Amino acid sequence: MAATDTFDAIVIGSGVSGGFAAKELTEKGLRVLMLDRGIMVEHGEGYDYDGKPAYEVPARNSMPKELMESDYFISKHGYVTPSNRKFYNDDRLNPYAFDEGSKFYWIRPAAVGGKSLIWGRWSFRWGPEDFEANKRENVGGAWPITYEDVQPWYDYVEKYIGVSGSRENLPQLPDSQFQPPMDMNIAEKWIKPRLESKFPGRKLINTRLSNMTEDKPDQNRTKCQYRNQCGNGCSFGAYFSTQAVTLPAARATGRLTLRSDAVVTKLDYDPAKKRVTGVRYIDGKTGQEQVVTARMVFLCASTLATVQIMMNSKRPDGRSWFDNSGTLGRYVMDHIFRVSIGGNIPGMTDFIEYGRRPGGVYIPRFRNVGGEEGVGFKRGYGYQGSAFRAPAAPVGFGKSMKDGMRRYGNWQFGMTAFGECLPYEDNRVSLTPGKVDRFGVPLMKFDVTFRDNELKMMADARAQGEAMLRGAGLTDVKSSEGEHVPGDAIHEMGGARMGADPRTSVLNKWNQAHDAANLFVTDGAQMASVSCVNPSLTFMALTARAADNAVKLMKAGTI
Q1: DSSP states of 30-76 as a string?
Q2: Average pLDDT value for residue range 345-352
Q3: Can you say how many angstroms the Cα of residue 200 is from the centroid of all Cα atoms in its chain?
Q4: 382, β-bridge pairs
Q5: 519 exposure class (CB count in 10 Å sphere: 0-12, 13-18, 19+)
Q6: How far apart are the C-alpha atoms of 314 and 129, rounded to whole Å?
Q7: How far is CA 494 from CA 13, 40, 66, in A?
Q8: Tens digit of each residue's pLDDT (9 = 90 or more) over 313-347
């Protein structure tokens, strides 16, 4: 690094949290260095298969078995395809200790932009109950903040990124600052009144997506084109990603330096001053170690990578500098979700859906809302689903087969339940002594399991899902339940949780490490619970809030 390179802040990671941190800090006047372990992917030109049909993608976009077995075993469970493979981690080159501990799917990105390139884009606010439940139930640790603390930052983020959805006035699922919703298709509109009249208090609503329905010309972004190829990258910028939204904003200030292929291994620490004094990273191309310094560090490497970096920042006795509470690596959570319910919708066979709409519809949480008791488990779940007509399976050959390919089957509806996992102290991650990766960092080991509360919740979700679809008039209703493996939902949270007491938490209410005033953690590691809704919108809101406070502290000379 050249001696003239000086920075006010270092942001580690470039996903939804890191991208927002870089935007906020640079726009507030700070010189920022962003480090990401992934390859560089530029908006537009870096999306190799954007808009390409399957026949223009290797293996017709089906993952070859040999790649599954060798480099991308996580693709056996979905997610990775030839069209988006370069966005994902190579599990052979960058492994974790999956042969020890409990079963866990660590699904990692491998490109600048992080999970913002590959996320599902479902964007929900948490409700007041989500921030209050731990304290009320004496489960895990109490949140040091409330919904009211985060609400203005939800407003701020939503207006900036663009969230489409419908206003519903539900206390358990507060409304956002919405662009118009993506319209339900004819079959979903048929189900909605039938389900809601049969089951008072339950709603089937438009999903809430960071796919825009209105242009943002000031950001050079165009509304969704209904291609449903979001996972390949979107050159229109129609959904939120670091590449399309926060990175251009940070670059426009002239105060951002971005280094890709920068594998952060640890943080240097001064115990006398209780400050992070440097960030160590290895150049993924040359193998050379670098040390960079700044007045503050925002650690947003994604939940588990952040915890790994903090754990690897060790005292002489092998303990982390940031674990005086003994909670670093503990209370790790993910959503439980492998319950699916579906059925056939009668009639409407004269209609098909125009375009390929991303997203679908949502049934918000209705269990344990507003003081309900007696269902046999704590917290709750919601359903993500959609109605669709698939082309009929062709039979025969020649003319009869071609004629068959022009026909469609019946309308169907399918949905999946997403449930909340409670924060358990012994759901933890740790570093594996004697096993290191190619950069010398100890491999991550997982001891995270779902418990009786989560399994009872999923049993209820399955039974209630079947009852709702039958009650709404669907036929041939069936359900299934797959193996519940933590990490599978890619909503991992916890490990460096926020709390008021330094003896029982890693971060304070402003996302500052209790043990280092100039270290801020704003990705999923900060979370003290997980709600039952997708978390990325909350990560962004808390990041914007933390960045605003951090700059005020810096200007006041506190850090």
Answers
A1: --EEEE-SSBP--TTTT-TTTT--GGGSGGGG---HHHHHHT-GGGG
A2: 94
A3: 31
A4: 418
A5: buried
A6: 37
A7: 17, 28, 34
A8: 999 999 999 999 999 999 999 999 999 999 999 99
